[in-house]
Write a structure and sequence with these properties.
By secondary structure, this protein is of the alpha+beta class. It is 53% helix and 13% strand.
């Protein structure tokens, strides 16, 4: 039976005396009390309270049985141990109107459990005023709260209606994988299907910040998809995308469309939340986190990374248990080390790995933490282990497109650089306009450099530079390819542009960082050739 150990595994909210209302119940985080709105207490064991608290902090997200067992028992149970299921069964009997047909804690066959208690009516946060009397917080809809409205079937071809509805349903599911998101359920969304709607009114009724609406149209042998992200409060269009695709297997098309949209929306929602956070007079930990992530998404320059780190550090000062900010801070450590923005990359990689392991100790199934841990392992002489970690992250979240690129990058250091390009092409297929695409393109060029295919490397580096002119690294590795082809004037011009963005880049730093990636003799021999190319291209020695 999971009981007292689980209570200690999930720490209470850092907001003093914060209450959460849902489904006719009031959850008091600090007093560890659940009560009816009438005031009558609902008796819970410590374990029951802890698991309920874990669920309400991850609304709409599937939590695996293994994650629950790890979190509440600090150990791995035998495969057929049902202690967590017994605990959830007891909790259901106390909070569900009909425990045999639960609507709050839903079983997801083969996956785990999902808390839907906040799905139809987002939470009201109640805080005590100076007199200790509770009052409603006027903060408005929850962060990252969104409803995916049923996509329109332009032309009303009945043959494709199931395909169109499938996009809506899959997007609803996949967007709920975004950490901290609140996504209205499919049934709520489909209640508006085919109706003339007032978006601002629905936004108030459902208490969400964003709408996603779109349409699908078939024309000859092609399918066109249009999608728009809308601010529910103002009705303003925040982002729009349109793409055409040649008709193929409809299920494959649906998966690709959803992957593209989910990846792009993740970035757009972060940018929107960061803009909101800039206007907050007293930003909390998550406001600061979103601002840090927005700076990191702007491009990997020393200044952007330093700004991002500042916001993540402030977020962690406000809430040391903010796992997302912890992962963000680890990402800045990795970037500063990998692209030689710091004088001691080895120590910074160690710091990044420690933060990621701490994050995973709190959230064992966090796909992003697994992915970035894999990336750190790749660049610290554990490439095979890192590739496996990235593959695990992709299994946890199929829309974690960046993992494809890191797997390709890792292949360079396990002696399979010839496989890298295919992984990069797959990442770009799924997210062609991704904010990190310039980094992926650079990986493909690096693999070509390692293989001695400098002519093939140059277009990849030029694409990376075109995609983000504030990213210094491809300028240097482009200079290598050009220098080794004897095109010295072009090589020196490229290196000059790179040094304008990162004046601390030197051959000594590159040698120290890149030799630390692998002890493989082939890697070290290739590295020496690349460093010679840098020297010819005019990269400073020290």
């Amino acid at each position: 039976m999971v009981d007292a150990p689980g209570f200690d595994a999930v720490k209470p909210s850092r907001e003093a005396a914060t209450l959460l209302r849902f489904a006719g119940l009031v959850l008091d985080f600090d007093a560890c009390i659940l009560a009816l709105e009438s005031g009558e207490a609902v008796p819970l064991t410590r374990g029951e309270f802890a698991v309920l608290r874990m669920f309400v902090r991850r609304p709409g997200r599937v939590i695996s049985r293994d994650a629950l067992m790890d979190a509440f028992a600090h150990r791995r149970f035998e495969p057929f141990d049902r202690s967590v299921d017994v605990l959830i069964g007891k909790l259901r009997r106390k909070i569900e109107a009909d425990p045999k047909q639960p609507r709050l804690i839903v079983t997801v066959p083969g996956e785990g459990y999902r808390f839907d208690g906040l799905r139809f009516r987002p939470p009201e946060i109640v805080k005590p005023n100076a007199d200790g009397v509770s009052k409603r917080d006027g903060a408005g809809p929850p962060r990252l709260s969104i409803i995916v409205l049923p996509f329109a079937n332009i032309g009303r071809d009945p043959e494709h209606q199931a395909f169109v509805d499938g996009i809506t349903e899959s997007l609803t599911t996949d967007l709920s994988r975004i950490r901290g998101s609140f996504v209205m359920g499919r049934n709520t969304a489909f209640a508006y299907k085919g109706k003339a709607i007032d978006l601002e009114q629905i936004g108030r009724e459902l208490n969400v910040r964003y709408f996603l609406e779109g349409s699908v149209q078939r024309g000859g042998s092609r399918m066109r998809v249009n999608v728009q992200l809308i601010d529910a409060e103002t009705g303003n269009h925040l982002w729009a995308e349109r793409f055409d695709k040649r008709l193929a297997d409809l299920f494959d098309m649906q998966d690709e469309i959803v992957a593209r949209l989910a990846g792009a929306l993740n970035t757009e929602l972060v940018a929107a939340e960061a803009r909101r956070a800039e206007k907050v007079s007293a930003p909390d930990s998550m406001d600061l986190y979103f601002q840090g992530l927005a700076w990191l998404n702007k491009g990997r320059t020393p200044d952007n990374v330093a700004r991002a780190r500042g916001f993540f550090d402030r977020a962690l000062s406000a809430d040391p248990d903010n796992v997302e900010a912890l992962i963000g801070s680890a990402r800045t450590d990795h970037v500063a080390s990998a692209f030689l923005f710091t004088a001691n990359p080895a120590a910074t990689f160690v710091a990044a790995e420690a933060k990621l392991k701490r994050a995973l100790s709190s959230v064992p199934d966090h796909p992003g933490a697994h992915m970035y841990l894999g990336l750190v392992q790749i660049v610290t002489k554990r490439a095979a282990q890192g590739v496996a970690e990235c593959e695990h992250a992709l299994a946890l979240d199929r829309n974690l497109v960046e993992a494809h690129s890191y797997i390709g990058f890792g292949k360079i250091y396990v002696g399979h650089a010839e496989e890298t390009e295919a992984h990069i092409v797959e990442a770009l297929r799924l997210s062609p306009h991704d904010t990190m695409a310039y980094n992926w393109m650079s990986y493909a060029g690096i693999a070509k450099n390692y293989l001695g295919l400098y002519e093939q490397a140059i277009p990849w580096f030029r694409r990376a530079i075109e995609a983000n002119r504030n990213f210094p690294h491809p300028h240097f590795v482009l200079g290598v390819a050009l220098a080794l082809l004897g095109r010295l004037d072009e090589a020196r011009s490229s290196v000059k542009a790179g040094l304008a963005l990162n004046p601390t880049f030197t051959i000594a730093r590159a040698r120290a960082a890149w030799s630390a990636m692998s002890d493989d003799p082939t890697h070290l021999a290739q590295l020496q050739r690349l460093l010679d190319g840098m020297r010819k291209a005019g990269v400073p020695e020290q």
